[in-house]
Amino acid sequence: MAANQKAQAKGERAKGKVKKVVGDAVGNESLAAKGRTQESKGDLRAAKEKAKDAIRPK
Prior knowledge:
This protein is mostly helical. 88% of the residues lie in helices and 0% in strands. Helix 1 packs antiparallel against helix 2.
């Protein structure tokens, strides 16, 4: 996985987790939903990069 893409995926996951936790803590469902979405986006980016690495010749 490219280091840049891996870092972006981890960053999106972390930001999403924070938004989700803060949204749940203060009762802001919109913020919590945005956090879940962003966290999922990071998961998908990481999965995409892992798939690219799997098919890339060694």
